[in-house]
Design brief:
By secondary structure, the chain is of the alpha+beta class. It contains 3 helices and 20 strands. The protein has a domain of 125 residues: Glucose Permease (Domain IIA). The strands form 4 sheets. Strands 11, 12, 13, 14, 15, 16, 17, 18 and 19 form a 9-stranded antiparallel sheet that branches. Bound molecules: zinc ion.
Length: 277
Amino acid sequence: MRAAMGSRVWFTLLLVAALTSAAAGTQPLQVTVRPGGVARWQGEGVTACAAYGRTWAPLGGTCYFPVDLEATGALTVERLRGNRKETAVLRVGPYPYPEQHLKVDDRKVHLSKQDLERTRREAAEVARLWELHTRPRFTLPLAAPLQAEAKGDNFGARRVFNGEPRSPHSGIDYKVAAGTPVLAVAPGRVVMVGDHFFAGRSVYIDHGGGLISMVFHLSRVTVKEGDDVKAGQVVGKVGATGRATGPHLHLGFRWHGARVDPALLLARSPEFADIRP
Ligand SMILES: [Zn+2]
């Protein structure tokens, strides 16, 4: 009887020890990512990546987890390696994006009831594109959207239009002359050609793998919905349509629904937030 009790205690202790070490072994890895940043999880034998209720195939063996410009707090991400599911936590830290003051036509800041309805309708139409999930047709880094070397800036800027705070800037702006050709950054399919209140004449391209590129404020669009484009193909000309202070190219991305810094996708050695022990 005493011996039986003793072995039961011993067994319980063993069980507790096993559970404790299992819990320590599965403690998820953590990494800090800025809003609009991208976490990268490299490793051998990865077959799937998952976050935000979606699952996708790794890109060149690596899982990339784009973090939306307005994300906050902790995001759980997963990957499948062999038959094992691994979990990591992305901590979205505050990031000091600068404030930018802009002066535009007041009707583009204080919207009429009709314009407000129009922007809501257009936003809903465009949001459907973030759900597209087609075969990946791109590799990183992407190609430049302009022929000549130019630097885009202002991603994440907290924008104040005519003294009123508005949504943060979700792309980068290139200050180039009106009429400059705008190029596709990767192969893909034109999924929308818009003439929208804020974006003006715009082209949305699905590059597969959950990546959509968009170019705004064009004076002219030279492709149509359903067209397949190559990287470097002209899709339109720079202009100042929509809510723009003057001619410039706006380039933005949604990747698995998240608005990410285009600089990360265009740079040769981008600063991804690496998930690693
Ligand atoms: Zn812009």
